[in-house]
Design a protein that fits this description.
The complex is a heterodimer of chains A (279) and B (252). With 279 residues, chain A is an alpha/beta fold. Chain A contains ten helices and twelve strands. In chain A, a hairpin with a 4-residue loop joins strand 9 and strand 10. Chain B has one domain. Helices cover 87% and strands 0% of the residues of chain B. The radius of gyration of chain B is 21 Å and the shape is elongated. Classes of the chains: A alpha/beta (279), B mainly alpha (252).
């Protein structure tokens, strides 16, 4: 079991090659509870592969991946299910099941854990918890609709609800704001920050928008106001420091550091993701 | 050329791997009975109209063609025997399988393919469900159970279709003679291969559909490609295996 001081996720020198191209090249990183990593990188830099490697959706060639203190890289698919149950994932397109209603989609991980007996949810009312998660993303009214009836931004929010319904200590977000208008994108990022600050979960966020990283780094969710508030400079510095930025290029991590360090970087490739990250 | 053969053998190996895992899953928990019954409804009940139609027409066509051929030998009273042998041994199983392959191998490949390209398969794995257990095994069970049933129905309907041509229309023999001769023509060997074939074809259709669906890449275009590949290879394998089974049973 990982204690608060120990990282819940650790990559040690992880590499993966697809044919002749590096998807991951000597990637090392670690993540503690409540921390956030923002991952930037051009298309094909290995960002999505990195996320998928975390929960063993893609196998890696060399290196160690440890999730909640367990080895992922060499684990069998069946052994990964209990680990995956503790990590929420938001897929790029939402990854919602078309054949199920929104409510059933959100309920799915709960029912699944119940039937796999990978958590002691027996007796808990899964439907109520699914409703709570949908209310968290402000979509409680869509419970009986089908994903195809929702807009892209709403589907993304349902995806977030499904990712967090089991209250996982780690949430992986694959491009939560891609292809959305700025207002919807900010709503989504506010939810991501809310999830982090209300439940103290760790998050790994792949994104193209610099603003997404700014929101995670410079704001916190205030439950009393029900909104994001900007962090001050003094005692809030510790809160700022939980958010670090990773820039990937051709599978390698070419930058790792805080927002100030990112903005101060003189690397041309890294600078592309600052401010004008949208290209 | 060598690369082509390599990819061919590699995908056959992947196919065997998928087949092995989906068979093993039949005996493993969790069981998705709901999905099995849903697929049985879609594949079995859903294919019934087309199977009845094809069965009736194929029976009628054999009767018509054979009436002329048998007449040349003065053996037109044997029409029941001929129809029942060709239907039960070969045409019933193969035509039914071809219809179900066209209908369901394509449906399976497109459904699973769409799920693959929209990351629903990955989502399923991420949420702790084995896609083979949840998607492939129910389709395998459903198709393998339903295809023999559909084939028996097609055989019976085909015999009725042939009866309508041979007895009321062409008046070759009496109804009683027709049914007696068609029943007595069949021996255990015929029934065995007539029921073994759809069982094997069911495995082929479901697994080929799932196989091409699950390895779909390249967005919606890829789904179309997967469907075409699934139907074409399912049909090829149906004809190849029917020849192999015939070879075994003719020798018995």
């Amino acid at each position: 079991m990982a204690t608060p001081q120990e990282p819940i996720l650790e990559f040690k020198d992880v590499s993966l090659k697809f044919g002749e191209t590096w998807a991951l090249r000597s990637v090392s990183l670690s993540l503690k509870p409540g921390e956030t990593r923002i991952i930037f990188g051009s298309a094909g830099a290995g960002k999505t592969t990195l996320l998928k490697a975390v929960i063993g959706l893609v196998g890696v060639d060399t290196g160690d991946i440890s999730l909640f203190g367990r080895d992922v890289a060499s684990a069998k698919e069946a052994d990964l299910f209990p680990l995956r149950a503790r990590a929420g994932v938001l897929f790029q397109e939402g990854g919602l099941f078309d054949s199920l209603t929104v409510g059933e989609n959100v309920e799915y991980p709960l029912i699944n854990q119940k039937s796999n007996r990978s958590s002691n949810l027996i007796g808990a009312d899964t439907q109520d918890r699914a409703k709570d998660a949908l209310t968290f993303v402000e979509l409680g009214h869509t419970f009986n609709q089908f994903p195809s009836e929702l807009s892209g931004g709403m589907r993304r929010r349902v995806g977030i609800a499904r990712a967090i319904v089991t209250e996982p200590p780690l949430v992986l977000y694959d491009s939560p704001t891609a292809g959305l208008d700025p207002i919807t994108a900010n709503t989504i990022m506010a939810l991501v920050a809310k999830e982090r600050d209300v439940r103290n979960s760790a998050s790994l966020i792949v994104t193209h928008r610099y603003q997404d990283g700014e929101i995670m780094s410079d704001f916190r969710y205030d439950q009393e106001q029900g909104d994001l508030v900007a962090l001050g400079d003094g005692k809030d510095q510790a809160l700022r420091d939980r958010t670090k930025f990773i820039v990937m290029k051709e599978g390698s991590v070419v930058f790792f550091g805080t927002k100030q360090e990112l903005e101060a970087s003189s690397d041309v490739y890294v600078q592309r993701f600052v401010r004008h990250g949208d290209e | 050329m060598l690369d082509f053969l390599k990819t061919l053998i590699a995908s056959f190996q992947d196919f065997l791997f998928l087949a092995g895992r989906s068979f093993l899953n039949i005996f493993k928990r969790p069981h998705y009975y709901d999905d099995v019954f849903l697929q049985m409804d879609v594949i079995g009940w859903g294919s019934l109209p087309i199977v009845i139609l094809i069965g009736a027409f194929s029976g009628a066509i054999i009767a018509l063609q054979m009436a002329r051929a048998l007449n040349a030998y003065g053996a037109s009273s044997e029409v029941g025997t001929i129809v029942s042998l060709t239907l039960v041994r070969e045409l019933g199983p193969v035509l039914t399988a071809v219809m179900v392959a066209g209908r369901n191998a394509s449906a399976i490949a497109s459904e699973l393919g769409s799920m693959k390209v929209t990351e629903q398969i990955d989502a399923m794995r991420a949420l702790g469900t084995d896609p083979i257990q949840k998607l492939v095994t129910p389709r395998l069970i459903a198709t393998t159970l339903m295809l023999p049933c559909l084939t028996v129905i097609a055989d019976v309907i085909g015999l009725i279709g042939a009866y309508l041509i041979a007895v009321p229309l062409l008046k070759l023999i009496s109804g009683g003679e027709y049914w007696t001769s068609s029943w007595q023509a069949l021996v255990l060997n015929d029934l065995a291969q007539g029921l073994l074939k759809p069982f094997i074809f069911g495995i082929i259709i479901s697994l080929v559909g799932c196989f091409y669906g699950l390895r779909t890449t390249g967005g919606t275009q890829g789904v179309g490609r997967a469907v075409t590949e699934a139907v074409v290879s399912a049909m090829i394998w149906i004809f190849v295996t029917t020849l192999l089974i015939d070879k075994v049973f003719v020798g018995l």
